[in-house]
UniProtKB/TrEMBL annotation:
Major location category of this protein: secreted
Recorded GO MF terms: hydrolase activity
Species classification: Eukaryota, Fungi, Dikarya, Ascomycota, Pezizomycotina
Gene3D superfamilies cross-referenced by the UniProt entry: alpha/beta hydrolase
Signal peptide: 1-16
Species in which this protein is naturally found: Aspergillus cavernicola
Compartments it resides in: Secreted
InterPro entries: AB_hydrolase_fold, Esterase_phb, Plant_Biomass_Hydrol_Est
Protein name per the record: Carboxylic ester hydrolase
Oligomeric and partner information: Monomer.
Family: Belongs to the carbohydrate esterase 1 (CE1) family. AxeA subfamily.
Keywords annotated in UniProt: Carbohydrate metabolism, Glycoprotein, Hydrolase, Polysaccharide degradation, Secreted, Serine esterase, Signal
Superkingdom: Eukaryota
Protein task: Acetylxylan esterase involved in the hydrolysis of xylan, a major structural heterogeneous polysaccharide found in plant biomass representing the second most abundant polysaccharide in the biosphere, after cellulose. Degrades acetylated xylans by cleaving acetyl side groups from the hetero-xylan backbone. Esterase involved in the hydrolysis of xylan, a major structural heterogeneous polysaccharide found in plant biomass representing the second most abundant polysaccharide in the biosphere, after cellulose.
Length: 291
């Protein structure tokens, strides 16, 4: 009898939530898929996290890859949107003027419209919208931060490129893009990178999302020089400098660099880690202010 009671108690707390597809979320200029994870117990006015897969990946694949994220959603009651790209080897469009520009179209606007859907249908908090992603997904987080600073409060990018690095490239995948960016050959000043961000929304004078960036020092796909360029870009935007450096944070072999004194930017370099840096869900959720 006791065993049966314990089994029933266990089953009562197992989440019934699952990944499901939303086919009609609104205007979809990027022809992207929308998948969503809604926990059984939503927080009042829940936060929304957009989780972006890399090239050759998929929304469902990223759901299975970042295994700590759905359980955290169950615990804390936030919604996770998993967009899916189906073009250019399933890479995100991080090269076209449409995607790089506020309300310009392509993938970035489709993702923003997914967020709008979640806010409408689940009474989500528009001031608690975040984005994280790996590789091509990390590159898209940079676009969302630059082109839609009115939508996103913070981003966490794993092994990506600076916003605008691939502007004008014939494609965004390793097979179609200008290779100079991924090879670390595009080196600019912080002022030049900051000016690039401002091209995303000319005339915008509001605040930008907080930026967290991760990169492996042994990355052979997206050269680690891109970490330095991302840091230059956002320190230029925020007008800040390095304030602290901490070894073995959040795990051994990682170096945390803190920029500014108001939580604008932090970076992590992972010694001996290649492409891509494994997602550190707890550190990212703390950055988002969700735990």
């Amino acid at each position: 009898m006791k065993l049966a009671t314990l089994l029933l108690a266990h089953l009562s707390v197992v989440s019934a939530a699952t990944l499901s597809r939303v086919r009609n979320f609104g205007n979809n200029p990027g022809n992207n898929q929308m998948w969503i994870y809604v926990p059984d117990q939503l927080a009042p006015n829940p936060a929304v996290i957009v989780a972006l897969h890399g090239c050759l990946g998929s929304a469902r694949g990223y759901y299975g890859q970042v295994t700590d994220l759905p359980p955290a959603s169950d615990t804390h009651g936030f919604i996770i949107i998993y967009p899916g790209s189906v073009d250019d080897f399933n890479c995100w469009d991080v090269a076209s003027e449409a995607s790089l520009t506020h309300n310009g179209g392509s993938d970035s606007l489709s993702i923003v419209n997914m967020v709008s859907y979640a806010i409408r249908h689940y009474n989500a908090d528009p001031d608690k919208v975040f984005a994280t992603g790996s590789s091509s997904g990390a590159m898209m987080t940079q676009i969302l931060a630059a082109a839609y600073p009115d939508v996103f409060s913070a981003i966490s990018a794993y092994s990506g490129l600076p916003y605008g690095c691939l502007r004008g490239s014939p494609g965004s995948s390793p097979f179609s893009a200008d290779p100079a960016c991924a090879s670390g050959e595009v080196v600019r000043s912080k002022e030049e990178w900051a000016a690039e961000v401002r091209r995303a929304w000319p005339g915008y004078n509001g605040s930008y999302p907080a930026v967290q960036v991760w990169h492996g020092m042994a990355d052979g796909v997206v050269d680690v020089q891109n970490y330095e360029e991302v840091v230059k870009q956002w320190t230029g935007v925020f007008g800040i400098g390095l304030t602290a450096e901490n070894q073995d944070v959040p795990v051994e072999g990682y170096t945390q660099s803190v920029f500014g004194d108001e939580g604008e930017l932090e970076g992590y370099l992972a010694e001996g880690v290649g492409h891509v840096v494994p997602t550190q869900v707890e550190a990212t959720l703390r950055w988002f202010g969700l735990i």
